[in-house]
Amino acid sequence: MKSKYSNNVLIVLSVIFGASAIVFLCLFLSYLTTSNLYKKQLENTYMKCFYEMVEGVDSLEVDTSKLVATTSLNTQRELLGGMYNTCGVLVNNINQMPISYNKLTEINKFVNTAGGYYYSLLLKNYSGSPLDDSDYIQINTIHDRVKEIQYDLNNFVHGLGAKYSIVDRVSFNNNSDFSAGLINTESAYTDVPSLIYDGPFSDSVLNKEIRGLGNIDYSRDTVENNLHNVFTGFSIYYLGETNGKFLTYNFDVKGDIDLYVTVTKKGGLILGITSFGGGGNKSLSINDGVNLAETFARDLGLLNMYMVWQQTVGNILYVNLAPIYNHVIYYPDLVKVKVDLSLGLVVGWEATNYATNHVDRNYSSSISMSTAEESISSQLNVIERNFAIIPDKYVGELSTYEFICTWDNYTYYIYIDSHTGEEVNIMRVINTSNGDLLE
Amino acid sequence: MKKIFAIIIAIFIVALSTIFYVANNTSIVYAYDTHMTEIQSRLKQLGYYNGAVNGVYDDATVGAIKRFQADHGIYVSGAVGGVTANALGINMTRQESNDLYMLAKCIHAEARGEPYIGKVAVGAVILNRVASPDFPDTIYGVIYQPWAFTAVHDGQINLEPEAASYQAATDALNGWDPTYGSLFYYNPATASSSWIFSRQTVVTIGDHIFAI
């Protein structure tokens, strides 16, 4: 009897284990199939990016050499447009490769810079100017580098077997053969000058000279005393210094709300206020909030600052202030202010543009506003006209006429160069779930 | 004995079916649409919807949309496209701030334990990368660059951002940059790459060192 009972238990257990094994085997096979499918899809994506990159470099080499050979403006335009696009595709492909950023810095920088340079030549071409000697020197430099990359990449491709798998070679610490091959490629052109032109993507824009702070150095004590005057009733704690683009003293300002405040050593300007706000019920109207922002700027000694844009997100009002002198708006000197409409306080301030750009300068024009307005599309209805100095990617700043126009429920901001009459910028107001934006 | 086997086999068939069902139906997913609240609200005003205005695209909402479409001669699909939205009087020029959402997600994943200034700083670094020639030119490109952010690598990027992350992302998009152009940040207590320590430090905020 006992033996029969034991046999039954054994049979039951065997069935349980057997069935479990079958279940786990099924799950494991299912997992393996799915995992292999994902791996193949990933491999295909990497391979597509890689071979598109190789082809892109080949095409860039050919087109760059054609650019040197042709004198036709039309052909140059066609080539430059294509090369600019190729650079964009190349950057996209490079950045999808499974290699960490720090190993791709130079190749990214080179392709981005080359693309930006081709774009600047394209704009030059559209203005009817042929390539000059200095352009050809730069083009030849780029061509030499592209040839080096092409040589290294093709060598790398020839070394790959039919069964080469990027996914298999890639490891989390990036010591794979694949990474090593590309990194060797990179080493061939790490000395590419980063400033081959002074265009929109160059470092000179990032490292723009600071002109708006003057030369007077402020001590920490003076700055702290000034802060007590600005934030009456708040406790102020010194946090340390920042040694980046701006040299600043940093403070924690505690009161109804905690604020992180940075003040420049040169000029003693409050450069930044950062805080999280917006809780509670709204106590200020948007107009009151704008007034509060303008008054705050005036109290800090920033005169003639007026609202040129505002956006409300919940109980937070973002206000862009710009200096307006003699009816001219100085957009490069924008200060951004964040007002908590529930607390009735300025809880954010961003004045790096002002600190960088604010100096006395003159607005000038060679054509009248009415002449400039003639170039506005007849489809648009002009509802406001202003004089404006705007930042420009190439020449720093431009004197323009600003026309605010409407068409089919859309609002546009259009800027016409006050000397050449050319349209230099157009922006459309976009209604988003977080307020209106310009794009 | 046969009965026991039959019971065991039945149990395993049920167990197996359950396992495969759970594996293939891990959760019931409702589509969230940021317009959905507005759609429900409008349908309610028009008498087509009696449920909660909660932004959830559920069966009751689908039914209400279908009834509205049928009454207005629109192809009955239960989904709100341009024609239905127009008929409902919903602003067709309105767009969603996808960049803001993506930035808020990355800030939340990377800096949710940091002070508010640290969240803005992380957002600013992402935008500085977008502007830099060394990195991709879009927020998505920067965030999803391989091995650029730990939170993307380990999947934390998919956590839903909280209000502070949204506001920090808005601040960063509006130009706030407490890092003054920094392109990198790292936690010195956990960073393992010797390369990152070679970057020039700009400022320390919370647990992160920001560098160029």
Describe this structure in words.
The complex is a heterodimer of chains A (439) and B (212). Chain A is of the alpha+beta class and 439 residues long. Chain A folds into three domains: 19-206; 220-357; 369-438, Nuclear Transport Factor 2, Chain: A, CATH 3.10.450. Helices cover 44% and strands 25% of the residues of chain A. Chain A has helices at residues 2-69, 73-94, 105-126, 133-158, 166-169, 177-187, 203-206, 220-230, 286-299, 352-357, 369-373; strands at 235-243, 247-254, 258-264, 270-274, 305-313, 316-325, 328-330, 335-340, 345-350, 381-392, 396-407, 410-417, 423-432, 435-438. In chain A, strands 1, 2, 3, 4, 5, 6, 7, 8, 9, 10, 11, 12, 13 and 14 form a 14-stranded mixed β-sheet that branches. In chain A, strand 5 (305-313) and strand 6 form a beta hairpin. Mean pLDDT of chain A is 83; it is low at 186-206. Chain B has 212 residues and is mainly α. Chain B has two domains: 1-96, PGBD-like superfamily/PGBD (Muramoyl-pentapeptide Carboxypeptidase, domain 1, Orthogonal Bundle), CATH 1.10.101.10; 98-211, Arc Repressor Mutant, subunit A, CATH 1.10.10. Chain B contains nine helices and five strands, in the order H-E-H-E-H-H-H-H-H-H-H-E-E-E. Chain B has a three-stranded antiparallel β-sheet with strand order 3-5-4, covered by helices on one side. A two-stranded antiparallel ribbon of chain B has the order 1-2. In chain B, strand 4 (201-205) and strand 5 (208-211) form a beta hairpin. In chain B, helix 5 packs across helix 9 (163-173) and helix 6 (116-131) crosses helix 9. The model of chain B is unreliable at 22-33 (pLDDT under 50). Chains A and B meet through helix 1, helix 2, helix 3, strand 1 and strand 3 of A and helix 1, helix 6, helix 9 and strand 4 of B.
